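S1.2 Input.
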Amino acid sequence: MKTNSQPGGRRSFHLRENAQLYLIMLPVLLHIFVFSYIPMYGIIIAFQDYFPGKPFFSLTDTNWVGFKHFIEFFNGPYFGRLMRNTFSLSFYFMVFGFWVPILFAVLLNELKSGIFKKYVQTASYLPHFISNVVVAGMVLSFINTDGIINTIVKMFGGAPVAINTEAGYFPAIYTITSIWKSFGWSSILYLAAMSSVDPHLYEAAKMDGANRFKQILHISLPSIRPTILFLLIFAIGSLFSANSEFIC
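S1.3 Output.
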């Protein structure tokens, strides 16, 4: 009698058994490979005196300079300010924006009207699909001296402020814009985690006299705790990254 006791037989058995799962993963893996790994080929220009139009590899035209550009950047007069600004923007977004999708998902989970809930979900997802360049243009038009914000200020008797030319306003504008664009899409994972909670837990809590707040505190939030910790680790790991499209 034939068995799958050999390593090769076990591997082929697992491949056949999980073929559908691998096919589901294939488009995502191809997307990551094409858009994340293949472009890494261009990293080599950081070690060259490169200008557009030159080949990446050439026996005659390629001028390799090693870590010259990195050393110049680290010793440059703007290195400290660039690192501080990048860290500050990411830190503000993590502190003020990380909890917004959690709060939104919890509140949305409490809605009983299915139609209104779907409408709110759809409206919250839409900013994610708007180009960063378009969002930046919208924000600039809002904060101009003749924009909607200053128009509202003048309606209440205030003096218009040139928000777009005051550097002190930039961190708040950047953080608020980033939160608005991402909170709806980021709440999907939390909503998915809460949707897997057994409804009988909420019914049992009601019978024990727990109000809505206690149900959220003792059932909804514990159900998404692993997701919160997982995403928090990613947020901490991305503290030195910033959305440069907004800044430009």
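S1.4 Remarks. The chain has two domains: 1-76, 81-247.
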